[in-house]
Amino acid sequence: MYRKKIILFSVLLSLFFSACQKENVNSGNDYKTLGTAAHDLLAAAPYSLLQIEIEYMPGYAPDTTSVNGLVNFLQQHIYKPTGIQFFLKPIASAGKPVLALTDIAGIEKAHRTVFTSGSMIGVHILITDGHYTNPDIYASSYWNTSFCVFGETVKNNSDGPGEVSRLNLTTTVFEHEFGHLLGLVNQGSSMQLNHLDAANGAHCINRDCLMNYGIEIAFFPGTYTGPPPLDNNCVADLKANGGK
Description:
Elements: E1 2-7, E2 10-15, E3 20-22, H1 38-42, E4 49-56, H2 64-77, E5 83-90, E6 98-99, H3 101-111, E7 120-128, E8 131-132, E9 139-143, E10 146-150, H4 151-156, H5 166-181, H6 232-240
Parallel strand pairs: 3-9, 4-5, 4-7, 6-8, 7-10
Antiparallel strand pairs: 1-2, 9-10
Helix pairs in contact: 2-5
């Protein structure tokens, strides 16, 4: 959701992550509780390589810049000496405008091909052509190595007059949701100091942090350079759990 203000004839945009949803869905293999792979994603061992599989429905292929932005974000915070690789894979439409968590889980299980094995940890990102059951949600983290981006919701809230670009919104959603896979906040990576937003669990109280529930990204058209960074508390949590 957005609030729009006019300041000195420029548009100040505020992007709120009421658009973020965390879910717990238990299963086997990679399909484990959100946050339980945080250390494995952050540390150099036992997994020295990270492979990210991004599956997208027709019309919702992510821009390479957004994917590279996610990789750059991860390189700042995780140790993967063998590298970080990503694969883009088109899949068929969901065939329905509204998707529940059970739909998302079923789609992933039907199409996912990158799984954690040997010295490689795999992450699956699904980009749908529909909305979540709550139409204000941009994305949902639901398993330890899985999250979903609701492409239609992102599209409908970007690239319009006074709105953030679709590229920048996608990049921000990617990084925010991956932060949850890394255990932020206090959902797999323990807090070194209390910075949990008790009213909006698993989010940071700092309004200027990437992991804040009500992130506000303020920029003037043509000067916005990307999502806000993790604050010192979030970085400290990642370091304590094996990250940079």
